[in-house]
Amino acid sequence: MLVSVAIVVFLAGGVFFTFVSAVGVLRLPDVYTRAHTASQTDTLGAGLTLVAVALALGLETTTIKTFLLLIFIFITNPTAAHAIARAAYEEGIEPWEETDD
Amino acid sequence: MIPTTGLLLGAAAVFVVLAIAVLYRAVRGPTTQDRVLAINVLGTNTVVILALLAAALDVPSFLDIALVYALLNFLVAVAISKFTVDRGGVM
Amino acid sequence: MIELLATRWAYAVFVFVMATGLYVMIGSPNLVKKVIGLNLFQSAVFLFFVASAYVAGGSPAIVPSEGGGGPYVSPLPHVIVLTAIVVGVSLTAVALALIVRIHREYGTLDESVLREVTDE
Amino acid sequence: MIEYVAYALAVFVVLTAVATALLRDVLAAIVLFGAYSLGMALLYTLLLAPDVGLTEAVIGAGVTTLLLLLTIARTVRPSGDRTAERVDPRALFACGALAVVFGLTLPGLPAVGDPNAPIVSYEAVTGYYLSNSYADTGVENTVTAVLAAYRGFDTFGEATVVFGAGVATLVVLRREVLT
Fold first, then answer.
1. B81 to chain C nearest CA, in Å?
2. Which of A3, A29, A92, D124 shows its CA 20 to 30 Å from the CA of B27?
3. Interface with chain C: mutation pick from D40, D132, D174, D179, highest number of C CBs within 10 Å
4. With an 8 Å Cβ cutoff, is D26 touching chain B?
5. Is the pLDDT of residue D82 over 80?
6. C79 φ, ψ (degrees, to nearest 5)
7. How far is A46 from C109, CA to CA, in rounded Å?
8. How far, in Å, CA of D46 to CA of D2, rounded?
9. Is the pLDDT of residue B7 over 80?
10. Measured distance between the N- and C-terminal CA atoms of chain C, rounded to whole angstroms
11. Quick check: C94 and D14 CB within 8 A?
12. For an interface test with D, which of B22, B27, B32 has the most D Cβ atoms less than 10 Å from its Cβ?
């Protein structure tokens, strides 16, 4: 029972943070702010959901793969966001400022 | 008892809907980097959907595919970033 | 109509994406876009094969050594699709190599411009 | 419940396909084609074909995208002011006619997941492979058993095709692309 409640809580948290990330990617003004929301909230959303999946699978050898996935996403997602933001900077895209709408 | 399987599948459906929403940014742009970023978010969503399906349908081999996806997602994002910049050096 | 789409959704997606791929191959003037259209067409056909092998409530075709279990999805369309995917990427590689070569010779990838250049 | 995931994925795949077709910037089309491949591989996995899903992810979203990017890096990409491609009415008519003809066959096909569909219920073929593959080849995964043992020569021919494609690519490019 406790495990079920924990699964529900983690799933709700994961869906919420992914929703925030989707809204951020859709609504924020330029690529740098979008990279910020994508790397932070998306990593958190994916992480919480994967914890829920690991709890749902229970104590098995395959659950190790879920934790590998978790660690992998925690490392690669911010790195990819950094690479994208760096590429945008090298392309010469100016950061958004409050004055230009 | 809380129906865990239904919840996991429902969460997977929500994630697909969010992926469709993020697709707007991938189509709209305006820059290539925006599109790559949207595809990166989509890829992370894909990994999570696969993990949810693995738990809901009780097919643990889907987790292997999720691992390959996670690798590939990172690779494609870095590769496109590198190819679009002339001077290289995105890392 | 709705009922037909609900039960045969994978085949409907197949028809739509296949038509889209064919449209890109015919309608787009850019040669690289044509190759992308070819890939769209291909994966739509793969979806048809995979959907025809699917059994609702089944499991993947991994039969434990002591037998039993099931129902299983049919493994044979999967085998054909695996072969076709690998052949398809070879095709894409050769097509893209030809495109790079065409660009080096004529300096353009636009279909109509290419036709004018080669007619001279 | 699972059919809602499937419907949402189907919508995703259709939207990405249309966006790929209509975007004028080739780089954007390639990026969206990568998203389309991801969705398609997810759909294959949902239809219980994990081997096909894995191959499509690696080859469709990985190798094909990288090949297209390499081509773009070596050639031009049209940079117009318009985002969307101009629609060609004649091509649209031809493809619409094809879609209508194929769409008319939909009622004749068995429903997706129907256990009585001939392709899954025909015991002499599918049933034979499912019940005998472990005894014949010692492999639990029937897809692998058929691919590598029952139809080994076919897979050998496939390897020959890949080798031929590699040779043809090198001949066409005269080894310059690898530098």
1. 20
2. A92
3. D40
4. no
5. no
6. -65, -45
7. 41
8. 9
9. yes
10. 53
11. no
12. B27
- Give the CA distances from residue A10 to residues A6, A59, C84, in Å, rounded to whole numbers and listed in that order: 6, 17, 41
Integer Rg of chain C from CA:
20
The correct answer on CATH 1.10.287.3510 for the domain covering C2-63+71-119 is yes
Q: State the complex-level ipTM.
A: 0.85
C-alpha Rg value of chain D to the nearest Å = 21
pLDDT at B34 over 70: yes
Question: Cβ contact (<8 Å) for B29 and D28?
Answer: yes
> How is residue D150 annotated by DSSP?
I
* Closest B-chain CA to A7: B4
Identify from B17, B25, B33 which residue to disrupt to test chain A contact, counting A C-beta atoms within 10 A and taking the largest count: B33
Would you give the end-to-end CA distance of chain B in angstroms?
48
Band (pLDDT 50/70/90 cuts) for residue B65 is confident
B64 touches chain D (CB under 8 A): yes
Give B-chain residues touching D3 at CB under 8 angstroms: none
| pLDDT for residue B91 | 44
List of residues 6+ apart from D137 with CB closer than 8 A: D145, D148, D149, D150
Task: Give the whole-angstrom CA distance, residue C52 versus residue D131.
Answer: 20
Pick D1-109's CATH classification: 1.20.120.1200, 1.20.120.920, 2.70.210.12, 2.40.290.10: 1.20.120.1200
Compute φ and ψ for C62, nearest 5 degrees. Answer: -115, 100
Rounded to whole angstroms, how far apart are CA atoms B68 and D177? 28
Band (B86; pLDDT cuts 50, 70, 90): low
